[in-house]
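Task card 7
Instruction: Convert sequence to structure tokens.
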Amino acid sequence: MVKANFRIDLPESDIDVSCEVVNPFGDRQQMEHLLSTFCQLYAQRPFDNTGGVLFSSAFAYFCFLQRIKPNLVIESGIWRGFSTWLIDSMLPDATLYCLDPVLMMPLEFEATYRPSRAFYSTQDFSCIRFSFADATKTCVIFDDHQNVVPRLEQAANYGIQHIILDDNQYEPTYHESITHLIKQAHPVLPYLFQSVAEYYLFPPLVPPVPEGCPLAPLWEEVPECLQALKLNLAAELVYSWVTYLRLS
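Output:
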């Protein structure tokens, strides 16, 4: 049985996914503290990101990584390195692997974040032969727009338990997400969730709740500490479907 923060219902389907509904975001005082702490960190960002992780996704990463406290983080998909900055800032003792085949191309970015302590590779996650002292304290972040089932199989083969999906969106796209599989009532779901112990979709920060999202927003109005950052909220708070899985 998987622990999830919403009931995984598959209407008009004989497929059953047994789940225990829990709410890891239900402690209001804790969430207020996390948001306040994160706003202080976000104010120190090295550049305003484009084409990648913004406030909504970054706060989800922050909350999940605070919960996991990994000693090694693998990023599959780094682009300009904004999420690398976040991980580097909040986990100064963790080992960082940053993977992105697209960096083989002669791309020119206005600004990047590439810490010297990180290990970089243009190889795909599926091609590298990792060796971990403790794979159970390793987290992989998939922000690479690849089909989710092969990625979960690859992570499981490495013994990795903690996975953050940046690309778990509801809207149609060229890769297949778990949210897509749920929407389709795909027959692979019972087998997939047999290997998943926890499955937590990060809620929207504020209304409106996008189509397909089963969760209420964390706040009804934009919190003051976030307003003080003077961001382009229409862009920064776009819902991003960030999801945490712990493999069993």
